[in-house]
Structure formats: C-alpha cells, structure tokens
Amino acid sequence: xxxxxxxxxxxxxxxxxxxxxxxxxxxxxxxxxxxxxxxxxxxxxxxxxxxxxxxxxxxxxxxxxxxxxxxxxxxxxxxxxxxxxxxxxxxxxxxxxxxxxxxxxxxxxxxxxxxxxxxxxxxxxxxxxxxxxxxxxxxxxxxxxxxxxxxxxxxxxxxxxxxxxxxxxxxxxxxxxxxxxxxxxxxxxxxxxxxxxxxxxxxxxxxxxxxxxxxxxxxxxxxxxxxxxxxxxxxxxxxxxxxxxxxxxxxxxxxxxxxxxxxxxxxxxxxxxxxxxxxxxxxxxxxxxxxxxxxxxxxxxxxxxxxxxxxxxxxxxx
Length: 318
Fold this sequence. Notes:
Blueprint: E1 2-7, H1 13-24, E2 31-35, E3 49-55, E4 57-58, E5 62-68, H2 78-89, E6 93-96, E7 104-108, E8 114-121, E9 128-134, E10 145-146, H3 150-155, H4 161-176, H5 179-183, H6 192-211, H7 222-238, H8 244-264, E11 266-267, H9 272-276, E12 293-294
Parallel strand pairs: 2-3, 4-9, 9-10
Antiparallel strand pairs: 1-5, 1-6, 3-5, 6-7, 7-8, 8-9, 11-12
C-alpha cells in the first residue's frame, strides 16, 4: 500500500523510521528511509517498508512517499497512518483528500486534531507549497485562513437509489419502444430525459445529506442549497416534454423524494429562507411549495469544528 504524506517540519530519517515502525507494527530495521535523489545502491530494496523523502519549499518541509509491501500485516488507512506519524514525529502532517480538486487535503496535528486544508502550489520551479486555508485553526499554520470549503461539499456525491431506479425504468421503457417512441426517449446531453435524470439526482442528493445531518462535512453552502431547489423547479416543468409513461415514472420518483424532503424540513411562512439564499431576492415569490419550507437549523449557519476538537479518522469521507 502506498501513502503520501507532507510534513510541516523537517523530520530526520531516524525519526521517520521510528514513526513508521510504530504506525505499521514492524521493527525499525525493517523500514528503509532514503533521499529520493540519493544513491540507489545504498537502498535496502527488500525492506518490508520503504520511504523516499524530499525537501519541498513553502509551508511544508518534507514530502514522504511510503510503500508497505503486501506481507506487512498492519496496513492502516492513510488517515490513521498520518495521525500516528504526526503524534510520533511531533509535527502537523498533510495527506490528500479523495475529492477532485488538487488542493483538497487533510491536516492532522500531533494532538490528533483533524481538519480540511487547502494546499496550493505555485508555478515556480521548484514550486512553493502554500497552505492557504483550513477549516479549524492549526497552531503550526498561523497564516492559513480559517474558513469552510464549499468546493468540497459540491464534490460530495451520496448514493441516489431513487434516481437510479428511475434511470433503469426509463431504459426498460426505451428498450420496449420502437420507431418514433424510442426517439422520444433519447437521453443525449440537453434532452428532456437527460435533464430529468440530472435534476432528480441533484434533488435526491440534498435530501440524503439533509437526512444525515449534512454529513460528512456537517454544513451545506446556501448557494448550493438554492441550486438544489432550482433543480426541483426543473422537475416540476419537465414532465410536459416527456412521454406519458416516463412522466409517470418521474412523478413516482419525485413523490418519494418530496415526502422525505417534507419530513426533514419545517414550514417557513415568513419566507426567511429566500432572504438567506444568494442569487435571489425576498420580493420574488417562487411557486413551488419546496421554497416555503426550510431545514432547521439552517446548515449554512452551523459552526466549523471547534478549535482543538479531535475528529476520528473514521469521519473522513474516503
């Protein structure tokens, strides 16, 4: 298994070997630690665990590429290894997150505080590593802005079984149709069927995350919430452009999701929700009833993790 770590402080090869041996449950002598630009003839290529290190510039000091061979019995998730290494080496450690943005990282402190971190590389050669933001304060990163990462929430894609059941049902209808009827079920980009699928997925995602308490981030951007309500608007009008049997399937799927949405929200007779969402005005009067219900508490008002809070690695969405 391969692990990719970045350390805020430089760590001696001896400390690297000691930390990795403890994290992976092997003897210190079974860890080969070497400079990535060093003499390959000096390496122990048969070592159960190998680690190549190189110095980098900016807010981090070392980049570590760790490889544990298959016969190493204890191979923890990268989050656990990073936390153990941070504690043993007494430095904050970064490791890449699962989400698509290349700047998406996690940071874990020697005390076990785990938080999102935004790591950006300059265009210099060699590049400068800048940790520009974190979601909870990190003492070793005083220059990083403490903020929420909306781009991370956008990347989260919870399962959407209702939407996929609709997709499968539409495909069955398409296979059974012929001629012009089959043409009306085209799901190419921009087609009514394609639009229905996409908006149904978006609507189910926000409901699923609402039901989970907005896991895994614990909050939700107000702008993204508005977009999800607008997806529901699209679902309300798309039926007129679909074949009748597909419209019936869509109505059934939307009905299931609407029931869950209603159960997870409360009436908003004063229209306070519309004043909180960007991109609109309180004077606008959306017709859909979903605009007149709100989650309580509003997920964009919820606080970031408390400074000094210890977050378990199992809470990482990986």
